[in-house]
Amino acid sequence: MAEDDTYGLTGENPIKVGENSASNQRRYIASLAGPNGEVLSFNRTGSCCAYESENAIFGSALVDVYEVTYEGLKEPILLHISFYDYETLLIPKGFTKRNP
Q: Any idea where the domains of the chain sit in the sequence?
């Protein structure tokens, strides 16, 4: 569980899944559940928030934004994920690990 309340919830503190692959972003989101184990639905809505990265073309990476919902959620949650870089993956506040 992330200790930082902004982890994955802002473009300035994205979840860094690596592998230069959008499918890795989707696998990460699919590994999450709502706070009570709810099944998530998600859709990529665009990109934002350029940041410097040695792994990106021309040294500038973008963060992809996914709208996440689950039954009973009043407002969608926006997750910010980058596939250009990798850091140890944590669970953002308000989510849990999905049971297999």
A: 15-94
